[in-house]
Write a structure and sequence with these properties.
Elements: E1 9-11, H1 14-23, E2 29-31, E3 53-57, H2 63-83, E4 88-92, H3 98-107, E5 110-113, H4 119-123, E6 127-130, H5 140-147, E7 152-154, E8 171-172, H6 176-188, H7 190-207
Parallel strand pairs: 1-2, 3-4, 3-6, 4-5, 6-7, 7-8
Helix pairs in contact: 2-3, 2-6
Amino acid sequence: RTMRQFDCILVTHDEERRRALELDPRARVETLPFILMDCEQFEPAPHIPRDPTMIFVGFLPHTPNEEGLRWFLENVYPRVKNEEPAARLVVVGAGASTAMLGLMHDCGVEYHGFVEDLRAEYARSRVYIAPIMTGGGIRTKILEAMAAGVPVVSSTFAPLGIGITPGAHLLAADDPGEHAQCVLRLLRDDAAWWRIRRRARRFVEENYS
């Protein structure tokens, strides 16, 4: 009933359009991608990073970013470190609170704060983490990481609205143990890493470039 009150409903991907039309086949639903990625700027590095480095990018005063990072540090990161002691996490983003700075310090996280150009950070990173559980809009940093050739591990919530397929374009899990195993897989399995990277980069080129 709500959908029928509007002259037109705009969604960001054909998959969202399909889901909307399943609710009401008579609604006028159009796809309008409003995020564009400069795929030439974020050209992937030619070689796979050898160091087991993860990266989180986000403006930390934004509550979903801080909550997601805290969840990862408290529930997932210890599991990853237990199985892969050499693994490390780099956090990029301005505005970390005193409490978050303390938690990152206790976990041995490298906090880089605000970074003007992320390309070098992406080139050194093997896995991009997006453990975002709440919030609105679209997580554009996921698309940016995919464009830059960094495979993503996310919550099931984080990629909603982008139109990607978990398992094909990224790995997604909400259970801490499963989330950690997704990260460990991409840290260890070169074939899986290349497969996810190729599919993700192609998806961005075809849909958001």
